[in-house]
Fold this protein.
Amino acid sequence: MESNDYIVVFHLDIIEGKIWVQRDDTEDGITPELVEAGIPKDRIVLGFHLPDVRPYTGFALT
């Protein structure tokens, strides 16, 4: 790797008051840490899942 290369480990966006997890390549996942920090599951969107899969995740749809 060159010195200006980088790797995205996780990518979060805040969209309309919800946390969108766009990417999560951490070993244990960042989502459990968000929940443990007190963020309700209905305020977390697993954006890396297709919309038709999100209803089965237990998290917000959009």
Remarks:
- The beta strands are 10-15, 18-24, 44-45.
- The helical segments are 31-36.
- The two ends are 36 Å apart (CA to CA).
